[in-house]
Structure formats: C-alpha cells, structure tokens
Amino acid sequence: MKRVTRRSFVTSVGAASVLPASAVLGAVQGSEPAKENAVNAAGTSAPDRTVADRPTYLFFNAAEVLFIEAACERLIPADENGAGALGAAVPNYFDKQLGGAWGAGERLYRSGPWAPGTPQQGYQLPFTPAELFRNCLRAIDRQLAAANTPFHEMSADQQDAYLKSLESGENELDGVPSAIFFDMLLAMSIEGFFADPAYGGNKDMVAWRMIGFPGAYADYYEAIDKHGEKFMRDPMSLAEDGRGHIHMHPDIPASL
Amino acid sequence: MAQRLKEVDVVVIGVGMVGTMVSKELAAAGYKVVGLERGQTRATVPEFQSPGIHDELRFDVRKALMQDNTREPVSFRNQASQVALPVRRWESFLPGTGLGGSMVHWNGQTYRFQANDFQLATRTRERYGKTFLDSDLTIQDWGVTYDELEPHYDRFEYLLGTSGKAGNIKGQIQPGGDPHESPRSREYPTRPQKEHYQGALFRKAASGMGYHPFPQPSSNLSEPYTNPEGLKLNTCVFCGFCERYACEHYAKAVPQTVLLPVLLANPNFELRTGCQVQRINLDSTKKHATGVTYIDAVGREFEQPAALVITCGFAINNIRMLLLSGIGKPYDPASGQGVVGRNYAYQTMSTVASFFDEDVIINPFMASGASGTLINDFAGDNFDHSGLGFIGGAFIGAVNTNGRPIQYHPVPPGTPRWGKAWKKAVLKHYNHTVMFSLHGSSQAARQNYADLDPTYRDAWGQPLLRITFDFPQNDLRMAEYVTSKAVEIGKAMGAKQVAGGPRKGPYTITQYQTTHNTGGTVMGESPRTSVVNRYLQAWDVPNVFVIGASNYPQNASWNPTCTLGALTYWAIDALKNKYLRNPARLVSA
Fold first, then answer.
1. Nearest residue of chain A to residue B419 (CA atoms)
2. Interface test with A, best of B45, B49, B65, B430 (most A CBs within 10 A)
3. A205 by DSSP, 3-state: which?
4. Which of A130, A159, A192, B553 is deepest in the core (most CB within 10 A)?
C-alpha cells in the first residue's frame, strides 16, 4: 500500500467530506481545500466546506479526535465508490453518542459484583461507554507516545497493524482487554455510517446511497411486484419528515 | 407499609396480548378486572408514528421498546458449574414492556404447531422406539391436543386477521398451502401477502426439488379486514420495519389494533400502568392466593386483593413471578425434582446466505415481517428421523424481513470485518443476497432451567431470574442436518456462492437469535412434571392461572405466538365455563 502522510491523508479525505476537526483545532497547519473535483456518491461535486460544516466536538478532546478520526477511516475507508467514515462524519456520531445518554450507560445494567465471565456472557465491565473510551484512548495515547509514533502519524499499513493488535485482544488498555474496546469502536463505526443522519453520521445519506437503501421511506406496495428491478428513489431521512404525517384510524381515537 | 385496596374479582399481571385477551373476556362476562402493567401506556397515535418510528438506531440497536434491563435484567450462564452474570445489555432475546407487551414489536409470523407437537413424547416413542432419545432430554406431552386447540387457533387467527393460504381444510389438502399442516376448520381470514423476489426465487427452487413451498402466514395484513371485535385493520405496505418496531399503519395485528380499544371501553376493567408486581400473596395454607403486592411508578406500595390471579407475563417473567411468590416447587437439576423453572427451552436458529451476481436485484428492504415463502418438509416430524440421531426440525424459508443496514449487510464468509475489502463486499452484496432462516425446534433438557439468582437483584431489591442454558446435542445435530438441506436449495436458486450457518454451541447471549423463550411453568398431566394443569391452572394454588409461552413443555419448529393465542382462548374457555362457575381444581392431582 502506498504510504500516506498525514498531510496527503487529510487532503484526500477532506476533499469529499468535512475537514477533520484536527484542522479546526489547529493540530494540522496549512491544509487547504483540495483542488480536485471530488465526486460524492450522489454524483454531484462536493461543495466547498465552511467552518460551519465541521463537526463541533463536545465529548472528545483534541488528542482523542486525532485517533478517532484516523481509526474510523481505516475501519471504513473512502474508496472509488464514495466516502468512508470521515466523509460520512462518523466521528461526529461517536462524539454525540458518547457525550449523551448512550455514553452515560443508557440501557446498561450497572450493578456489581463484577467478573470477567465467559465470552458467551457478554459485556461485563463496570465502565459506561464514555468511561471505556476515555480510559482506552488514554492508554492508547500513552502506548504510542512511548513508541514515539502517534496513531494519526502512522502509515495506513501501520495503522491497520495497530488496529489488528487491538482487535486480536493481544493488547491491554489499562486493564481492559483491547478486543472489547475494538469491538465497540467497530460497532459504533458501522452504526454511525448507516444510522439516520439525524444522529450526526451518514452525512447526506452517503452510506445509504452507496448501497441503495431508501432509508425511512415506507411504501413499497406497488414496487414489491417488480421483481428484480432496481428501486431508484432517493433515500429519505427522518429529518426530511420532521413534521411527521399522522396515520389516524377512522375508528380508534388517538388516546385509545 | 402497603396500602390495602378494595378487593376485585380478578387481577391480571401484564397487559400484553394474553393479558388483553383474558381481561377482555372476563370483563365482558361481568367480572371486575384490574390489569397491572409495569410499562407505559402506548397507542398507534401518537407513540408509533413517523418520523420517529423508522429509526434503526433507536429501535433496533438501542432497543427502545424493550424491558428496562437497567432495572430488571436476567442473569445467565451456559451450565450449572459456572457463575451466572447479569445480561447487561439485551441481545439474544428481546422481551418487550408497556401496554400491548412484546407483541407490539413482533414480526407477525403466525404459525400453528402440528398435532404431533402436542404429544411429542408419546409419538416419538411410538415411531422411533423407547431408546431413540438422548438421555438428557426431558420432553413431554402437553396435556392438550391439537384437536382440542383447533377452534381456539381459529378464533385467534380471525381476531388477528392473519393473511395466509390453508394447506389442509378438514383433511382436504389445498393447493398452494402447506400440505404438512394439521387440519384446520376453514381458510385464513385474509389472502396471503404479496410474494417478494426472495420468496419467488426460493419457491421456484424448492418446487423444483420436490418440496412444498407456501406463503408465510402473516399478521401484517394483505387487505383491509374487520375482525369479530369490530376493529378494522389496514393493508400492509411492506415498509420493512416490523420486528423491534411498532406499526404506524394499523396493518400489524397487535393488542392496540385488534382488541385493546374494546377492552378499555369496558367499565369492568381498570388499567393501571407503571405498576411493578412484586409477588402474588398467599394465605397461611400456601394453597390459596389472596391477591398481589405491587409498587407503582412513584414508589408507593399497594396490596390488591383478588379472588383470582392470572399472570400473563412474558415467559421468563412468569417463571420469576412464581419463584418470587413461592408457588410450586423450584426445579433442582441435580435431583430432577421440582417443577418451576424446569424445561426452559428456546429456539435453534440457523441461517443460509445465497450470494448472487450484481444483475440479480433483491431489494431486501421491501418486506413485511412475515411476507416470505417457506417449506415445512424438514420441520417437526415431517420427515423420517430414523438413523438421523435427533428429533425435531426447522422450517426453511426465504423469510428475511428487512434491509435495515446497521444490522443487515451480509458478506461472504472469509470477508474481513473492516477496512477496504469489507466495505467493498458490503456494497457488492447488500442488494444481491437472499437470506434463509432455519427456524429450529428446541428440546427440553435436564440441565437447562431457570431459578432465582443468589447474587444479583433488580431495582426493587428482588433476585433476578437466573437462566442456565446451552443447546442440547440433539438440537445441534438437527441444525447441521437441516442446514445441509437448505444449502442445496440455495444452490438450486442459482446463487454464485451459498454459505450455510448451522447453529453451533455454546449458546451465547451476545447474538440475537429469537425472542422465543419457552418453558419453566410448563403445562402437563402430572404435578410431578408440570406447574400448571391442562387448563393452565397452578397445581398447588388453584386460584392462580399462569398463561404464557412458559407453559410450553418444549419448543416446536415455528414461532410461538399463534399457539399462545390458542392456549389463551383455551384457558379463557375453562375459566369462564368451568372455574368461575365453581372455583376449584379443574383437574385432580
């Protein structure tokens, strides 16, 4: 694989997408909007991005953003078919989830005692998702600082090798088996890529366009008879139907 | 100190489908009924409406409609030698909560079990001999027969308006239906749903191999329907958001669309939501229930006296309610003695993915929760098991219900989990794959059971239910065999690559399989091997009835809801025509 420098990496992904927040935070100086006419999956030219288009990170600190942005893009990279995680604003999805109820342990039973259990018994750590990320990102930062190569400055191959060390569970992150962290990182990347744009990822429904999923659209009564024909409608986000349309029943009052 | 309320005739614990049916019938018969529901009130309008309802993250991934596991989870282990740990997040199964219960988020798959299933132990012995079964299996007859349940199946299907094609009406095989089904008294209330492309591909291949494909019986309706209660359902539009969601269109048969409006209009019924029942209270003889104790949404404790208590919870909650109340002897796997928690079973799910070239466009997102095509040729005892070394089977069907992409993005085996190759594979296969579901039976086994956890507690301070479960070898052999048959169908469809995924052990709670938990308060012919008699009356406390999939002595090859509906009407019949006229034991022990 061609070695990707931080500079070329930022430029190439920034072209079809938001600028990474590292630019906002001043961690990378001098990156300019790409000159080449990047084409997004909808087939239109990517507009120039302004400051307002950049994610406002509320949960992650500057160092954490550097890792999350680079790591997500390796998990779901931009390619000839369209944007990857960065272009789809997946790090913004992470930030909003971890900074909100999910990060705080929504739907997570949190009473002890604590034991590692078997793989079949599932997640058994006392950490909320937010605590898990803080703990593990700090450990990763320290590990790589000791090795003198921050993740975002590695080559793509080096980044993949490091992510694989997390995935395999060989690595330990301040007591957390790294596979637990990696699995959550991967699951949330896929969520952010494919969830409704209302959650901050899947920007402009870019992931839905790539696979041909119509999103919240909800009526295939006629189309289902057209076996084998591609469904051509543009996808629909929840945000496009913000006022809703109520399906009233003629005989059942709303309150039952 | 609990505040003591005025006595009523009947207390119903849990106002899901079963609780709604029981309450409606008994209130209509003139009894004062109080329904205690731990969750919130919810209705098609406004709770189930857009834009919010088609939100995969909220409902699929974050499980918005499910039992609040931060307050009330279960604990789990594979075997008794391990320490059970709490299920900190739901994955393997998803019990619902709130008015309408788990049925609000069901897929609408509405199968009957077969006559053989209700006499499984007897018929297995007769056909295959006394030594055929693995020694760990504890299967038994239900104590009720298919013929006894048939009128109640019929009534339940007509309540829901189920869309399907009969295969056997009074012994006459019907073209286009399932020839293996046990005789039904009449056609389905509405015609089958339209067949999607996956179903059509499956039908052609399966027919060509001599199998008997038929349309999935669906309670997402194919046409407008007015049920015998006078409620009107709409036509389903195949939006692809059924299971884990509520239906915005009044097209899915759930308590809100088929019965609750009638129940709530009856002044003999009082609904109380936000009420967490702590236990059924017994008098000093321990043979008679005096009512229930519950804690309301703001934390106040009440005692609700009642002449009759009916627990209508999801299977695992029924088991726990009896254990917390001291009704029935808890099961001990070491001695094999005791009954509550015994014969906990599940479902043995396998999958087959058939990957096509990009010129075959599937549109997986155009589906209802039950608009597929399937065969029963390898379900139940519809094939000769001699020499196979297992009992049971699975239906095989192109019954995929959706294309919601966070959870549905099939890739061939060997694809990396992430990176460039993963993304490429997701894009290549999303719209060109046919998924089969192999819905396998689950035999009860001596080592699988439920009891109270010694360590972990719920938000009210009560012990969690502890589930000890792993797949019996019988069921893993079944999964292997049926999967090999399904792979042949995938190949016959002309798929470029067919990947069979037979269910393997150990059972894990980290992967969704089904919400078809069964057993633990099983029905039967003897108090030594069952918790309730054939009318679902507790052997030990005759004024307590237990109704739920927890009554199943083992689980069959099909989704359990329709059988539960039939059992509920069967029990209601016994309550109205026998028990309430003369409150006593309906079967002598």
1. A75
2. B45
3. helix
4. A192
- Subunit contact A108:B261, Cβ cutoff 8 A: no
Closest CB to A252 among B261, B406, B426: B261
Say whether A120 and B455 touch across the interface (CB within 8 A).
no
d(C-alpha B27, C-alpha B270), whole Å: 10
Cβ of residue B297 closer than 8 Å to a chain A Cβ: no
Cα angle: B228, vertex B315, A113; to 5 degrees: 145
- List the alpha helices (DSSP H) in B364-472: 420-429
pLDDT 10s digits, B182-225: 999 999 999 999 999 999 999 999 999 999 999 999 999 999 99
d(C-alpha B124, C-alpha B388), whole Å:
13
CA distance linking residue A113 with residue A106, whole number of Å = 19
Are B156 and B258 in contact by the 8 Å Cβ rule? The answer is: no
Q: Say if domain B3-579 classifies as CATH 3.50.50.60.
A: yes
A191, A210, A215 member nearest B427 (Cβ): A210
Widest CA span in chain A: 70
Nearest alpha carbon to residue B310 among B533, B100, B544: B544
Question: Nearest C-alpha of chain A: how many angstroms from B577?
Answer: 30
Domain positions in chain A are 6-211
DSSP B549: G
Domain assignments of chain B as residue spans, ordered by start = 3-579
The conformational region for residue B240 under phi > 0 = left, psi -120 to 50 = alpha, else beta, is: left
Cα torsion B354, B357, B363, B365: sign: positive
Residues 224-283 of B with CB under 8 A from A: 231-232, 235, 237-241, 248-250, 256-257, 260-261, 264
Q: Classify residue B34 as left (phi > 0), alpha (psi -120 to 50) or beta.
A: beta
Helix axes A62-75, A156-168, angle to 10 degrees: 90
- State the pairing for strand pair B497-501/B85-86: unpaired
Q: Collapsing DSSP states into helix, strand and coil, what is residue B478? A: helix
Give the torsion through C-alpha atoms of B379, B383, B385, B388, to 10 deg. Answer: -80
Instruction: Report the C-alpha gap between B220 and B162 in whole angstroms.
Output: 7
A42 φ/ψ sector (left φ>0, alpha ψ -120 to 50, else beta):
alpha
Catalytic status, residue B516: yes
**Chain B contact for A161, CB < 8 A?**
no
Q: Is the dihedral of CA B449, B450, B452, B458 positive or negative?
A: positive
- Cβ A212–B44 below 8 Å, yes or no? no
Residue B582, C-beta contacts closer than 8 angstroms, at least 6 positions apart? none
Greatest distance between any 2 Cα atoms in chain B: 72
Convert the pLDDT of each residue in B86-138 to its tens digit. 999 999 999 999 999 999 999 999 999 999 999 999 999 999 999 999 999 99
DSSP annotation of A203 reads G
User: Torsions phi, psi of A214, nearest 5?
Assistant: -80, 5
User: Chain A residue with minimal CA distance to B262?
Assistant: A256
Give per-residue pLDDT as tens, B516-564: 999 999 999 999 999 999 999 999 999 999 999 999 999 999 999 999 9
